[in-house]
Amino acid sequence: MDKQSLIKIAEDFVEHSEDNYISKEIAISANVVGMKIFEAPIFAFGSANDEYFTLLKQPSAIGEHFMLPKEWLPQAKTVISFFLPFSEAVKRGNRRDKSWPSEEWLHGRIEGQTLINKLCMHLKSVLTDEGYDSVVPALDERFWSNNDSAQHQAKFTSNWSERHVAFVCGLGTFGLSKGLITPKGVAGRFGSIITELYLPPDKREYEDIYEYCSMCGKCVKNCPANAITIENGKNHYPCSAFLDKTGEKFKPRYGCGKCQVDVPCESRIP
């Protein structure tokens, strides 16, 4: 099993999965029936021994609660990170209304995550069948995400961050909105797998954590919660409060994504 074989398996899964298209049964309205959620994924491969993972244990990054690849899987050799760019339909839909998430985006956020989970488990199954023990941290029983912690350091963090892992593996750098800007932009979703299969690590084509962000401030203007500033980046509290409002308004779905569309980094590195 090599990189290209794994990428091809993932591409085929995404393209042909029924979960990548909105069915009439689950569609919020007739406008989104048949809509494609994601385009083809892009991948980056990191070493489980990369010292950058250790740096994520610093309070200024994530914190001591971040679990290293080998804490998830002692024999880990490779961390596989991928980004699924939203389709043009999802992005275009969310550009229309500046105040609330579009139907397209709500489906992308919720049904899109369902597809990502299934893709992760499919790739894990492929690797396991080849004889390589693998773990999907976000779907592992040890995973936790803490948005309600009384400890400021732990609030809005988890013990495995898809965006930070993607940064370490070489997929992209952060923007003002705390989204990760990849060669396919910021509008999309991430996933990852830890495996004992050795795959040569990709080179990080950047040094600074904000290297791909032009600091143009467009996401600042787009944010309906006024949660982003040029000076301080994203404030998680007003962002989270606004997401709670969308959860009430669009139950059982929620989302926003205004900082990911109608910005120079929507679909590319600026």
Which word captures the global form? globular
CATH architecture tag = 3-Layer(aba) Sandwich
Compute the number of structural domains: 1
Q: Give the C-level CATH assignment.
A: Alpha Beta
Label the structural class: alpha+beta
Q: How much strand?
A: 5-15%
Q: Average the pLDDT over all residues and give the rounded result.
A: 95
Strand order of the largest sheet: 1-2-8-3
Features:
270 residues, two-stranded antiparallel ribbon, globular, NADH Oxidase, single chain, alpha+beta
What's the arrangement of secondary structure elements?
Blueprint: H1 3-16, E1 42-47, H2 51-55, H3 69-72, E2 78-85, H4 88-96, H5 103-129, E3 134-135, E4 145-146, E5 157-158, H6 162-169, E6 173-174, E7 180-181, E8 188-195, H7 218-222, E9 228-229, E10 233-234, H8 236-249
Antiparallel strand pairs: 1-2, 2-8, 3-8, 4-5, 6-7, 9-10
Helix pairs in contact: 1-5, 4-5
Give a verbal description of the structure.
By secondary structure, this protein is of the alpha+beta class. The chain has one domain (3-210): NADH Oxidase (3-Layer(aba) Sandwich). The chain has helices at residues 3-16, 51-55, 69-72, 88-96, 103-129, 162-169, 218-222, 236-249; strands spanning 42-47, 78-85, 134-135, 145-146, 157-158, 173-174, 180-181, 188-195, 228-229, 233-234. The longest helix has 27 residues, at 103-129. The protein is globular and about 45 Å long. The two termini are 34 Å apart. The model has no long low-confidence stretch (mean pLDDT 95).
